[in-house]
Amino acid sequence: VTVRVEHLEANVDRVLVAVAPPTPNGDLHLGHLSGPYLATDVYSRYLRSQGIQTYFVTGSDDHQSYVPMKGLKQGRTALEVLEHYGQSIPKTLENARIQVDHFLRPYHTPAYQTFVQGFFKRLVDKGALESRTGPALFCESCNLYLYEAHVGGSCPSCGEGANGNGCEKCGFVNDCIDLKDSKCNHCQKTPITKTYTRFYFPLNQHANTLKDYFSQVSMNGHLHALTKNMLRDGYPDISVSHVADWGIPVGLPGYEGQVIYEWLEMAAGYLYLAQTLFGSWESFFKDPRSMFVLGYGFDNAFFYTSFIPALFHAYDPEIRSPRAFLSNEFYQLENLKFSTSRNHAVWGDDFLKEVPADDMRYYLSYSRPETEQTNFDRKEFQATVDRELKTNWKGWQDRLKAKLAELRPSDAKAPAARVKFEARMDELKSAVEQCYRAETFSLRSATRLLNQMVFEADQYAKTWDFLKGQPEWADYVAGERFALCALAEAAAPVMPDFSKRTLAELK
Ligand SMILES: [Zn+2]
Ligand SMILES: [Zn+2]
Question: What protein residues have CB closer than 5 angstroms to ion ligand 2?
Answer without folding.
Answer: 139, 142, 184, 186-187
